[in-house]
């Protein structure tokens, strides 16, 4: 089968499009014929060795943790899925080796859920990591509820635009930080936009003079630093990028595969409450370009990878 691999840590130039053996199918997994994957910042951070201290890498590595595709075969201990089922998955395992930038993936059942009917393959393949991150941060870490005001930093990005929609679906008022070119998009999603940069805290206070009930940091730096001072009494704080949030009394969220969460996320999508913004699409053989575009930043929504 065709896949993207790398045999050493490095920049996008280490990625190769080549033939590799089809993965073996364990008893608790299904073999998925991949239709789409997507690029997340963690993909190129893993490629550059930033996670080497916490995850063993077995070269050659196939990158990627997102997928949408069709079940080809089910493992011996799998009653949940059958050949022909359309699925999505956040296929992160405990080691870095068999990723999703490939024609076929042996995906553990715990990482999968039914594909939302209303999404294209590109949208579905772009949903799992960012969707689960937003869902687990807002629902589990922050427990956002109706009538609350939520501040989402980097609200137009991959995780951010999903977080805005989930918070709105839960009945919250959302203030989202972004560059001015994304203001109209945030308004369409139901958020009140606020510009990054000097004076950010004052601009948020003008919209929420009594403070916000919850703040979700998706970017770090100034966003995290100013957030505690923007909370109302009893307000909650979470970050997905900076562990220092714990020193500020908040929660650090590292997304984990969860079939039940992913299924619930799919229900939100099919109800019309959440959709996925795909900014660019690259074919599998151009995965290096896709990762380069993601690393450069300033992408609204997601970058999808299609598998022929």
From TrEMBL:
Signal peptide: none annotated. GO terms for molecular function: oxidoreductase activity. Transmembrane segments: none annotated. Residues 10-305 form the Enoyl reductase (ER) domain. It comes from the Bacteria. Gene3D superfamilies: Medium-chain alcohol dehydrogenases, catalytic domain, NAD(P)-binding Rossmann-like Domain. Pfam families: ADH_N (PF08240), ADH_zinc_N_2 (PF13602). SMART domains: PKS_ER (SM00829). This is NADPH:quinone reductase-like Zn-dependent oxidoreductase.
